[in-house]
Write a structure and sequence with these properties.
This protein is α/β, with parallel strands linked by helices and about 525 residues long. It has helices at about 40-50, 80-95, 110-125, 135-140, 160-200, 210-215, 220-245, 265, 310-320, 350-355, 360-370, 385-400, 415-425, 440-445, 465-475, 480-500, 505-520, and strands spanning about 5-15, 15-25, 30-35, 55-60, 65-70, 100-105, 125-130, 145-150, 150-155, 270-280, 285-295, 300-305, 325, 330-335, 405-410, 430-435, 450-455, 455-460. The model has no long low-confidence stretch (mean pLDDT about 85).
Length: about 525
Amino acid sequence: MPLVSLKKLKKSYGDRLLFDIEKLQIEDSDRIGLVGTNGSGKTTLFRLIKGLEEPDEGVIERQTTVELLPQLKDAIGPKSGGEVTADYIVQALNKRPKLLLADEPTTHLDIRHIDWVEKSFKQFNGAFLVVSHDRTFLDQVCTTIWELDGETVTVYPGNYTAYKREKEHQNQHQQTEYEKYTNKLRQLTQAKERKARQAVNATKRKAKVGDSEYNLKGSAPYFQKKSKKLQQVQKAMDSRIEQLEKVDKPKEQEGITIELPDMEKIARRFVIRAKDSSGGFPEKTLWTKSTFSLKGGEKVALMGANGSGKTTLIHKLLNGDDAIQVSPALKIGYFSQDLSTLEASESILENIKLDAVQSETLIRIILAQLQFRGDDVYKPVSVLSGGERVKVALAKLIAGDYNMLILDEPTNFLDIQAVEALEGLLAGYPGSILFVSHDRSFVNRTATKLWVIEDQNIQEFEGTLDIWEKARQKQPSVCSTEEELMRLENKTAEVLGSLSLAFSEEKDREFKDLLQKKKELQE
């Protein structure tokens, strides 16, 4: 019996229909990733399944308890966003629900803790439905993908990579069918036009008609009859054109060529050099004397655990530091989560044109790739969602008077389609890029060099994240204190749950041992 069944489900907000789902089921042990653009209704679908909202039409049958891990999590004292997320995940998993709804469970987590979440989801005994913009995470934990698009949900077997492969196959098939359709339409249209010309010519008076032809048929009646037949053929072709099943052209991204100021002065030359750079506070050392560099046109990912000093290093680059030399030819554009570069009362297009050095045509192409098409560009920023504002801020930087971008977590709050579009835009960006991101797929597709803050040191690595991780796997693995604490937290809650049902001396001893180990680690 399915854990949850959705039947003839409809849900609207105002005059906008979010869902029109005929039938969906979640079975025991399902591992489902839910994907869709920002605003498509993923969070609303979660709330409906949980029972926090009611559908306009249809029924939702629940045969089990449902636990919801929300995207927006309440702050817990002085804890960081990553610590709050980890606490929520531990609490949700320890309840051992048969069905877990997880809305962006990796938000604010660094890569090490995302690995821990992956392991936890793989070991989870129940079913789960998860929303995440982390494609690597979806590949690791999901065996089915639900795509929410066009008011319905389409089910794809396999992980995210399998889903993308099938979408590409569908796109290629649609392109083939579109070409067949346009070729047939062109043939019929040309044939129709040819018959139309023949019909007109057939009614014209002939300058010379031979006696035999005139005597046998009669000139005017013959050609009038011929014209009528041609017109009938023309109408038949009109009917065939109308009966052709129209095939839409697949959506394609237009290529872009971006020209940046002073690139000839910085291309492939050192634009940032740090020698014996150190960072920290009186009470804490973030990194000791380190040497690293960046050349014009390089794309570098700045990586490290939460609290390791990534933001501190960015502030040193922006505000100046004696140990870091920055080329005077650099024009740095900075993306931060506060989105302070946007004017809420202005339209999307006006916001970007304000500091742009690119043409309006190129600006519109950039916006179209980020899913702002047609009249969308005239919307005021004030009416946009958080994810949409992030896209506008990024477009503003890409089109702006800069030759280097520093991006602090640019993929937060973006849907997967927008992240993939951003990857394409940054791939075609000729300037330097330094960015912070915990999205492993994004790092792999964008960065060709890493700055890694680890063990109070900044290490340079020439290569992608995949190559770096393979190199690390050859070294002895060391379990972090945080990871071990999370494991102990899970186990402690599990033993405590057993004790609450039935006391046993063995479980009691195990519980005390776990508490002692936690205390030792915390100290």
